[in-house]
Fold this sequence. Notes:
The chain folds into two domains: 2-23 and 75-202, 3-Layer(aba) Sandwich (Rossmann fold); 24-73, no CATH class. The relative contact order is 0.17. It has helices at 2-10, 23-33, 48-52, 56-67, 81-90, 106-120, 138-142, 156-164, 191-202; strands at residues 11-14, 95-101, 125-131, 150-153, 168-172, 186-188. The protein is globular and about 50 Å long. Strands 3-2-1-4-5-6 form a six-stranded parallel β-sheet, sandwiched between helices. By secondary structure, the protein is of the alpha/beta class. 43% of the residues lie in helices and 15% in strands.
Amino acid sequence: MKRKKELKDKIILVDADGVLLDWEWAFNVWMGEQGFQRVKGYQFVYEMGERYGISKEQVKKLIKIFNNSAHIGFLPALRDAMFYVKRLHEEHGYVFHCITSLSEDDNAGKLRKMNLRKLFGKTAFEKFIILGTGDDKDEALAEYKDTECWWIEDKPDNALAGLRAGLNPILMEHGHNMSFKHDEISKVKNWKEIYDLVTSSTSI
């Protein structure tokens, strides 16, 4: 019970792409350089193949190439993430455990860590769990089972996995998940709203 409270009071679990980092923007720039363009209404579709009008197999290969490239070390922060992650860490003592489905390539993992530390500081992230491209997160989340830690994601399936694991999911809103609704999962537009949720819960 003591460990559960310590984890909840200290640790925020967080995805990287679509939550901390604007992976979609960088990937679209890169795809444009390869000659691909997004279809009309792309922002409301999660599957990247459908966004570009190509097969799942082809887009999976392209994502793997991009995630294993040097580009992955230079992704910009998403929206207001830098300001509020730093406030949660420096003013409220939270540390972050990043659970990200990126690549099994060691160098890609090193670039991800470098990118996040460059944007958010060297001490905000206590732990990185780097999974393969597109991997599910159920097993990684099981380590935090029933801790009620905050779990911030942009993919509804992963938010639901967190709920099943006894976590407190928050879904970062994007066009592709706007239709998703769940009574036990908060949906936010930015990190200001995350900051308000987290800090208001600790002041009760």
